[in-house]
């Protein structure tokens, strides 16, 4: 998040001189392709339209997502479906307390050649993929979680004194059970902040669950199909960063993020909602919200984000970057209520 990717100077100059009409045409064409991809995902993942939208927003923004939900709600199936539809190479890691960093990054093995000469060879781990599913990420030890932290932030890993780049694109979709906490290690705030969005996966409504019941227990089951070609996601991510953002949206993002800081508050002082928080979000939250609003606009076929995009994405951007104070928890205050109060202040 927030890193400037070095590129060809001439290509940057060309991007800067692209006309608004050409940008609108490119956005319209790409938005249509993304619409096909979303439709392909929702044909397989029933009753989770908002979840699908938020995960796609995370990927279009170039970020990672944390999926929080009870077992059996289709989190694993969603990740596998996204990998197929988006044309990404995907792998899955089942996190357990005995998982070691080498199980994620890879390890060096000593091999003997034809003439008896021995040498170390690095065998790449499952992190060398485009879409990594970290299943039940909070079951791994802090040491193993820290090994994934560098990969998530820097898109590269250090092994045996060498720095190895990860494939592009590289995204982590992690899952977490919100109820069963026995034998788990809470994710540190530094790692939580690396997730662009925290996506809450809830129960489907009655109609969706009925359709799901009929679709998944019959003789034939809907299978995901590839829609996007390799590289199209990278093009979409580059376009997201070129989408214009109005001053009203920028001001709303700043009011929301700065207003959630109990030691700062907005320009008018600390709000009542911020007083109920132990700590607030950093600048990375504003960066995440800026990119996510652009991605949501592109996904909906719009050329510029609106205040509705800020309001819709405020909770998934903030909920893992803030925490209730002890007094607020004692009074029975819920975090969604605090975020709703912060969101109402942006207009």
UniProtKB/TrEMBL annotation:
Domain AAA+ ATPase: 61-205
Record-linked CDD domains: AAA (cd00009)
Coiled coil: none
This protein's name: AAA family ATPase
InterPro entries per the UniProt record, alphabetical: AAA+_ATPase, ATPase_AAA-3, CbbQ/NirQ/NorQ/GpvN, ChlI/MoxR_AAA_lid, P-loop_NTPase
SMART domains: AAA
């Amino acid at each position: 998040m927030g890193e400037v990717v070095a590129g060809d100077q001439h290509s940057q100059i060309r991007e800067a001189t692209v006309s608004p009409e050409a940008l609108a045409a490119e956005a319209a064409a790409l938005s249509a392709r993304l619409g096909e991809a979303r439709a392909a995902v929702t044909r397989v993942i029933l009753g989770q339209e908002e979840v699908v939208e938020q995960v796609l927003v995370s990927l279009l923004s170039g970020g990672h997502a944390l999926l929080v939900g009870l077992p059996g709600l289709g989190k694993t199936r969603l990740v596998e479906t996204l990998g197929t539809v988006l044309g990404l190479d995907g792998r899955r890691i089942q996190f357990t307390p005995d998982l070691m960093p080498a199980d994620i990054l890879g390890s060096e093995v000593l091999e003997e050649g034809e003439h008896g000469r021995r040498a170390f060879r690095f065998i790449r781990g499952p992190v060398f993929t485009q879409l990594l599913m970290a299943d039940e990420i909070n079951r791994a030890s802090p040491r193993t979680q820290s090994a994934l932290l560098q990969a998530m932030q820097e898109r590269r890993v250090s092994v045996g004194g060498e720095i190895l780049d990860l494939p592009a694109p590289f995204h982590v979709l992690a899952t977490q059970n919100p109820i069963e906490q026995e034998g788990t290690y809470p994710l540190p705030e530094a790692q939580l902040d690396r997730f662009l969005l925290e996506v809450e996966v809830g129960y489907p409504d009655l109609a969706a669950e009925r359709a799901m019941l009929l679709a998944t227990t019959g003789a034939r089951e809907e299978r995901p199909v590839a829609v996007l070609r390799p590289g199209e996601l990278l093009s979409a991510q580059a376009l997201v960063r070129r989408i214009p953002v109005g001053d009203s949206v920028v001001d709303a993002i700043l009011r929301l993020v700065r207003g959630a800081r109990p030691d700062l508050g907005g320009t008018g002082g600390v709000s009542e909602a911020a007083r109920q928080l132990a700590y607030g979000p950093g600048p990375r939250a504003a960066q995440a919200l800026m990119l996510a609003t652009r991605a949501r606009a592109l996904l909906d076929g719009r050329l510029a984000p609106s205040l509705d995009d800020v309001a819709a994405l405020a909770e998934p951007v903030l909920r893992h970057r803030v925490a209730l104070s002890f007094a607020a928890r004692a009074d029975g205050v819920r975090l969604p209520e605090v975020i709703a109060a912060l969101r109402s202040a942006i207009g």
